[in-house]
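Exercise 7. Predict the joint structure of the components listed below.
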Amino acid sequence: MRAVITVVGKDRVGILAKVSSICAACNANVNDVTQSVMQDMFAMIMMVDISRISCDFKEIQVKMNQLGEEMGLQIHVMHEDIFNSMHRI
Amino acid sequence: MINTNDILETIRMIQDENLDIRTITMGISLLDCCDSDIHKSCDKIYEKITRRAQKLVQTGEDIAAEYGIPIINKRISVTPIAMVLAVSGGDPVEYAKTLERASRAVGVNFIGGYSALVHKGFAAGDRALIESIPEALAVTDHVCSSVNIGSTKSGINMDAVRLMGRQVVEAARLTADRQCIGAAKLVVFCNAPEDNPFMAGAFHGPGEPDCVINVGVSGPGVVRAALKKAGDCDLTEVANIIKRTAFKITRMGQLVGTEASRRLDVPFGIVDLSLAPTPEIGDSVAYILEAMGLEKCGAHGTTAALALLNDAVKKGGVMASSHVGGLSGAFIPVTEDAGMIAASRCGALRIEKLEAMTAVCSVGLDMIVVPGDTPPEVISAIIADEAAIGMVNSKTTAVRLIPAIGKKEGEELDFGGLLGFGPVMALNPNSPARFIARGGRIPAPLQSLKN
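Solution:
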């Protein structure tokens, strides 16, 4: 089971580090990362394996939301099936 | 890996364009709760609903959180209560109170099925239930009621039509101190579907399984945004854009429906391919029609634009779901749609145009505020007109009018929340009283003889 983490907001130091450290703390393995910075805007999409996570899926969402608020970013953690079902036949 | 643009598109649809699952509705059969003692019957109903739907709200919230897609309503539909009443007799309002208690216990937004199916005539329980509707809606908050008064197969029961005109006015009168909300929870149908997840017309038809999950999707904002982005393309391209968007919206409904059905261990019924608006700016069906190039919804051309929209929504959606049902199509509830409210306020949208629009979209004259002194026979005549459109075109039509007691044209009612707000709309002042007083049945049209 995999989740997609998306981070959008103003670029600053340590975004990737902080998001991945939450993943690591929850034992969510990062499979893939794409990120781009256009002008000042930072956009990152991270695919993480959540099949062996050490906490509740909701807890990761809560932690990411907190981080998003602290850093002024929009962070979404969503099950990958929503994207698969919408965009793949 | 999933395409980055696809991921961002989904997030934009949810965050900026009000994409959501409008409702997960659990249909529950009450046929095994019938008892000749009304108290026993009520106890069994309460037990069955609270047992079956115990985890409905929590499951909906879990799915919403996990997939990141808002699920606005969790609802229940039940077997038409007139059928249960036929066995037990007694005061039908007892059933309304039981449904209210059960809905509060499980935390759903609405419970539908305080209903009777009388398209060919009244059976035991039907008349008593219909007589009790205004009171039942006044003493409860979550109970919704519907009555099917006609069908393509059976014609229109004009005795029931006459009765319903009175009941609509009475439902409004008994709740005059609460914005006449009673009438907003009452729908009069022709060709009512048995698996509709949307309120106020949801009930669990007698042909349905014991328990089932039906899903209604929504996404007018997404369609409108896609059309705006496309700019000045021709109408073939407009239809294609709507189809593509409807496909994506419906896939999401299918995912949520199958997931809910798996978690609740209840069979998955249907996805209702709907474009259901809300009063939020940007979540409006009228604005889609305006994005197609109409100055205001209600202008000449509105019916054609709506026909295109409705058809494209179905074509896109039907490929995305294993089972399609319910009402399926674009909704045009006036007070629930920011664009319709604006169009009716400025006089661009009138009831005659809305009636024409109902011939090509999914439901009927929905959430229209009419003058409080409208005679019951005028309401009956509107119901008859609408039922005739449904009967002849083999489609569902419905009427949900709210007589604004004590208010006149130009004044407004405000229901709050998803039910929205809107101005009192003018009606034709000429009387249909003698036509309605005749009663009887309008025979089924030739279209009904398909065998």
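Discussion. Chain B has two domains: 23-190, 218-448.
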